[in-house]
Design goal:
The protein is an alpha/beta fold and 182 residues long. The chain has nine helices and five strands. The protein has helices at 9-12, 21-27, 42-48, 64-68, 73-90, 109-112, 117-134, 143-149, 164-177, and strands at 2-7, 31-34, 57-61, 93-98, 139-142. The chain has a five-stranded parallel β-sheet with strand order 2-1-3-4-5, sandwiched between helices. The protein is globular, with a radius of gyration of 15 Å.
């Protein structure tokens, strides 16, 4: 089974030398092409998937950078729905992974000066809720729910990006949620 990972710095493995949850899933023998890029937004992903080949399964983690850049929830949702529509044409199962909330615990002070994290976290919560309500042509894996059930703040390097420990845990969580599909 060929899997395509499309996402931002969380999938890319920013601050952990590329050792993201995707890296750990690949290490378990899954055939995954990781097209994730630090800072990627829904607008950029929507544009870049135009020349994507077909896969059996798509993992999509996107939207966080849009919220950091002040984009609205409506803008992010509309783009995610367009991304899903494009991926459906290619065939395969689509899993949208909703982000976990950011944390103030280890937050890099540089971020605080230009990002309203309370607003970002509210958008993340609403994105998770709406994606779950609208999931028909796609399935949702909720990192938001994972963060509510498991204390992750200590494992966020800069308040946003997971350390190696959390990446391993998230890879196990995703593998569990994909049980029966991979």
């Amino acid at each position: 089974m060929r899997i395509c990972a499309l996402g931002d710095s969380i999938f890319e493995g920013y601050l952990v030398g590329g050792k993201s949850l995707i890296y750990y899933l690949s290490g378990k023998g899954y055939d995954i092409d990781n097209y994730s890029v630090n800072g990627l937004t829904t607008d950029e992903l929507l544009y870049t998937i135009n020349n994507l080949m077909s896969y059996d399964l798509y993992l999509v983690h996107i939207g966080l950078n849009d919220f950091f850049n002040g984009r609205s929830l409506e803008h992010v949702l509309n783009n995610i729905y367009k991304i899903i529509k494009k991926l459906k044409v290619l065939g395969g199962e689509i899993f949208v992974i909703s982000p976990y909330p950011t944390s103030f615990k280890n937050l890099d002070e540089a971020y605080e000066s230009f990002i309203n994290f309370s607003s970002v976290n509210k958008n993340i919560e609403n994105l998770d809720k709406i994606l779950k309500e609208k999931a028909e042509d796609f399935k949702v894996i909720s990192f938001f729910d994972y963060s509510k059930e498991n204390y992750i703040e200590e494992d966020l390097i800069d308040g946003i990006h997971p350390n190696i420990n959390l990446n391993k845990k998230l890879s196990n969580y995703v593998e569990e949620k994909l049980n029966g599909y991979i």
